[in-house]
Amino acid sequence: MGRPRSFDEDAALTGAMEVFRRKGYVAASIRDLEEATGLKAGSIYHSYGDKAGIFAAAMTHYNRAVVDARLAEHAPVCAGLAGLRNLFVSLMHEPNGTSFGCLITNSAIEFGGSTKVPNGVDIGLRTLAATFEQRLRAAHRSGALRRDLKPAVAASRLIALYQGVLVLVRAGWDKPALERMIKDEFKHLGGEYDA
Amino acid sequence: MGRPRSFDEDAALTGAMEVFRRKGYVAASIRDLEEATGLKAGSIYHSYGDKAGIFAAAMTHYNRAVVDARLAEHAPVCAGLAGLRNLFVSLMHEPNGTSFGCLITNSAIEFGGSTKVPNGVDIGLRTLAATFEQRLRAAHRSGALRRDLKPAVAASRLIALYQGVLVLVRAGWDKPALERMIKDEFKHLGGEYDA
DNA sequence: ACCATTTTAGAACGATCAATCAAGAACGGA
DNA sequence: TCCGTTCTTGATTGATCGTTCTAAAATGGT
Question: Cys-Cys link to A49, which of A53, A128, A147, A163 (CB 3.0-4.6 A)?
Answer without folding.
Answer: A53
